[in-house]
Design a protein that fits this description.
The protein contains ten helices and 13 strands. It is an alpha+beta fold.
Length: 372
Amino acid sequence: DTGEAPLRSRSRPRPAPEDGLALESSPERRRRRDKASRQGTISGKVLEVEVEAGGMDTVGEDELQLRGGGDTKGGTCKRMWEVFPGKNLICCGGRCITGPDPSIFVFNIVLTFGALALFYAFIAIRLHPIVIVIGFILHGISFYFLLRAAFTDPGILRRRKTPTRANENGDPPTAVVNGKTVQLSYCTTCNIYRPPKCKHCRTCDNCVEEFDHHCPWVMNCVAKRNYRYFVGFVASISLLCVYVCACSIAIVVISVTGNRQPAGVTLCAIVLILFTGCLGVTLSGFACFHCGLIAQGITTNEYIKGRAGGARETGCSQYPKNCYEVYCTELPKPDVNLMGPADEEMRDRGGSDEKMVDLEVRAGGDKDAEIS
């Protein structure tokens, strides 16, 4: 016996149970705690996000918003069409893109529909029902090509946030295309070296691949990805003008030769003859001009400036091949994914570098292109 008092175990008093839990058993309380923990915050934890390739990738919370994985830290993921730096008008959640000024485009539609309304109401109805059917078919084809040319991405190249570096010796890079050495020009707005045939459109404020021209009538640039639709629109509207003009001439001839028509019908026919005749001749020549440029493998911009970028081969033997590449090949995917997340970081990593130097270019055929 040491004289010391025996040690007694001391325990803290248990807290009073919360209201509503006093009668719960221990397993029930554990289930409630597990449920509450599962519903807790995910801050600081590693999340698994399914990527487009179909696999699972492990990313941190800070990168979740960049990937478009959801809402983090109270923010929302922005899509590329919401922060697009150009002047283009973008609609339908990034599915359609066009130029910045719709006024001439709207005037084009109103003028076309107005002239055709006169044609159907005063001319076609007095000839034969098949005349109306053919008119509707030609009108539908031309309107389809107009919408595709106006709202298709013409081939906009992705910008870079930081300037692109030149070669190690400081000289701008060059490209050898079809045996020709072409020096790549640098765009200070987009911070990229432009491939041959590419030009920065001042109206839309973008570098556009295989730029032909900016057409206010279709409210868009005419370039690599919508050139076929533009030529289809010009050709179909030319054919429609010739058709309306021919039917209007038929009404005038019928009125003169004996089956006299009302004065208003004859006046309408004369107006349509003058309007569609002049427009048809002009547009037919314009369509032939573009078909010739396509066969030669050059663009309107190159034709005006008197130089060719060399992306497509020239020469009579290459005419069928050049036409096939424009009209019949599959359209390349757009370089800017407007419906994707606004991935600024990918621009700094040079995500479009391969695009800038891919100068075998789908229009370049089987000829190799080298970058130096």
